[in-house]
Amino acid sequence: MPGRATETDWSYRHGVTDARKIAFATFVRRALEDARAMRAWSGTEVSRRTGVSRQTINRWVRGDWASDPEAERVVAFCEGLGLNPAAAFAALGWDRAATPRATPTPPPMDPDVEALLRRLVDPNVSDAEKFHIRETIRYLAYRPTLPADSGKRGRQAG
């Protein structure tokens, strides 16, 4: 394309010499260009949709990282943009044939929480009730933590 800088020009201007960094920076830059062109997403929108901070994305574009990006962030970035993470992993030179790290087993779920989740997906439960369940969960999840001994105060013998 006339007037378009080559990858070599870009890497020289940005001081990036590691081939993996250049390849990953190119992958991220193209993904951002596609998001802007096809979806009209800004950098902020890409960050919001992928869950990866703008600072991290900018470091990736510049090839400004000392250790490899976290696989979870790379996957989140790709999935948020509808891309196959294997392409990003290939750019990073990660061996996909290697044994994947074992994911930790999640702790057992409380039976009451399981019951709430079942109600939230049950088509026979009204939208209004589902709304109240979600609002109650949000309230409980984000309320300030009570002091550890606060429950004992009300039960003191008098």
From TrEMBL:
PROSITE patterns cross-referenced by the UniProt entry: HTH_CROC1
HTH cro/C1-type domain span: 32-88
Superkingdom field: Bacteria
Residues annotated as transmembrane: none
InterPro entries according to UniProt: Cro/C1-type_HTH, Lambda_DNA-bd_dom_sf
Pfam family, one: HTH_3
GO terms assigned for molecular function: DNA binding
Name listed for the protein in its UniProt record: Helix-turn-helix
